[in-house]
Amino acid sequence: MAEPAARLCCLGWDFSTQQVKVVAVDAAMNVFYEDSVHFDRDLPEFGTQGGVHVHQDGLTVTSPVLMWVQALDIILEKMKALGFDFSRVLALSGAGQQHGSVYWKAGAHQVLTGLSPGLPLHQQLQACFSVRDCPVWMDSSTTAQCRRLEAAVGGAQALSRLTGSRAYERFTGNQIAKIYQQNPEAYALTERISLVSSFAASLFLGSYCPIDYSDGSGMNLLQIQDKVWAQACLGACAPHLEEKLGPPVPSCSVVGPVSSYYVQRYGFPPDCKVVAFTGDNPASLAGMRLEEGDIAISLGTSDTLFLWLQEPMPALEGHIFCSPVDPQHYMALLCFKNGSLMREKIRDESASCSWSEFSKALRSTEMGNGGHVGFYFDVKEITPEVIGRHRFSPENREVPAFPKDVEIRALIEGQFMAKRIHAESLGYRVLPKTKILATGGASHNRDILQVLADVFGAPVYVIDTANSACVGSAYRAFHGLAAGTGVPFSEVVKLAPSPRLAATPSPGASQVYAGLLPRYAKLEQRILSQPQELLG
Asked: What are the coiled-coil residue ranges (predicted)?
């Protein structure tokens, strides 16, 4: 896959749960090279399943740090063998699975700064980590540490106001606290703690790369307004933590030139820039090119909302991060567990297992569903924390069943009304210029997208996001090169492929949902106020 010599480019990396992936993007924003190394398949000696080790308690989940290092060796050697022209790389950036942490042993920095181009990275870094199996985002073993952190700052809401989220088991501060408590020797030997993103950037930099504001927002440690470490949170987690983390930096920072190791071993140009790496979710926001007022909805097994916020209002649900592309703004993430599996269940029950029958039901029922409202949570929902199915008549009486076509519309309208209500509770507002970007399986169903456009009162676009974190990282590398000039991210990526318009709001939609949305919110509160045993 040798490329024309004149093609200047940026590389975007993604150190995700199951693989390391790379794309090359040229100055016209075209992806012209991509490759990946799959951990389970290509590095079977590490014995991972889905890229991780699930421990006996079923709660602790880790990944071997040297597996990530070796994967980078393999992919770079593969690119070299295919004739990839590294001399044309202007800059690189990347993403890492959020929340995971890497523990560099005392003396590791010296090794990083003196890498020998004659040897692969994994051979040189073998003794550089005080914790060889790193906690990752799937870990849920730190409940005690979460409660302690919330107590230290005055409760869950206070922690959310400070750091953008209440305490979550997977968040890095709580993972660090657990390592300090259970393995104090390893903690004492640690000279630097990186996120997966800043660890990967450090490999390219040949020096410790700072944590960026956006991925740093997923730690329960960063004050998202002032963009400094929250002293009360650091103190609640572990001693000497600030010096082990180092100061955080803006996400668009050029952190330095690529290490001479890559210049000599692979032919990178000496002035190739490394732009701070960030988390995979923030990098996906960049890959989808969200702008102020936009919203992205991933309609998958669980449904995830990405929001662009100017003035966030942190709450007990959802997460607020610093924006990866605009240091003055924010992004929010909301996750809804009852996504495609719930849609498929109602399809099977009410549309004879047929998506075309499901779509026909949406087309044959009116906006607002004649006042019928439904809540469908077969597994315990995260946003809000509730389980069960609840149906309400136009008079707000709870009823045991709906006609099949009403049931289908109640499900889809309810799912999208919930998303709008909870987005607005975090400070999101639909603007006249708002675009909704829909991805995931259900984004192929035009009738579902029509309901989405109607409920939000905004046009819905579809976009290919197969490599959004990777491509977003390459876009961010270009932005890093231009960031010193004050050029906005949207200007840098204006040549990138445009999303495709899929649905626009129906006439009268705003009036219908202006009345229905407050009613839905009140009914949700009514369900939440019921005794918990009635919700099963």
From this structure: none
Lowest mean per-residue pLDDT among 77-86, 264-273, 421-430, 480-489: 480-489
Cα separation of 9 and 37, whole Å?
Answer: 21
Q: What is the pLDDT of residues 43-74, one digit of tens each?
A: 999 999 999 999 999 999 999 999 999 999 99
Question: Are the C-beta atoms of 351 and 408 separated by less than 8 Å?
Answer: yes
506: which DSSP letter?
P
Rounded CA separation 282/432 (Å): 24
Q: Residue 129: which region, alpha, beta or left (left: phi > 0; alpha: psi -120 to 50)?
A: beta
Which helix H or strand E contains 446, and what residues bound it? helix 446-456
* Contact in structure between 352 and 361 (CB atoms under 8 Å): no
| 115/206 Cα distance (integer angstroms) | 7
pLDDT at 362: 98
Q: How far is CA 369 from the centre of its chain?
A: 34
CA-wise closest residue to 418 among 389, 470, 456: 456
* C-beta of residue 301 within 8 angstroms of C-beta of residue 340: yes
**What is the tally of helices (H) and strands (E) in the chain?**
21, 25
Peptide bond into 384 cis (omega under 30): yes
Residue 18 CA to residue 39 CA, distance in Å, equals 6
Contact between 233 and 220 under an 8 Å Cβ cutoff? The reply is: yes
Per-residue pLDDT reduced to its tens digit, 414-428: 999 999 999 999 999
* Residue owning tokens 């005392």: 106
Distance (Å, rounded) from C-alpha 169 to C-alpha 45?
29
| Per-residue pLDDT tens digits for 212-251 | 999 999 999 999 999 999 999 999 999 999 999 999 999 9
pLDDT tens digits, 453-477: 999 999 999 987 778 999 999 999 9
Distance of CA 464 to the CA centre of its chain: 16
332-383 pLDDT tens trace:
999 999 999 999 999 999 999 999 999 999 999 999 999 999 999 998 898 9
Return the pLDDT at 232. Answer: 98
487-517: string of b/e by CB count within 10 Å (b at 16+)?
Answer: eebeebbeebeebeebbebeeebeebbeebb
Query: How sure is the predictor about 3, in pLDDT bands with cuts at 50, 70 and 90?
Result: very low
Contact 472, 29 (CB under 8 A): no
Q: How far apart are CA 22 and CA 37, in angstroms?
A: 9
Q: Output the CA angle 196-202-127, nearest 5 degrees.
A: 85
Instruction: Tell me the C-alpha distance between 262 and 279, whole Å.
Output: 23
**Three-state DSSP class for residue 400:** coil
| H helix runs in 325-402, sequence order | 340-350, 355-364
Q: What is the pLDDT of residue 49?
A: 96
What's the rounded Cα separation, in Å, for the pair 346 and 412? 10
Burial per residue of 454-477, b for 16 or more beta-carbon CB atoms within 10 angstroms, e otherwise: bbbbbbbbbbebebbbbbbbbbbb
Question: For tokens 């940026």, what's the residue?
Answer: 10
Do 190 and 103 meet the contact criterion of CB atoms below 8 Å apart? Answer: yes
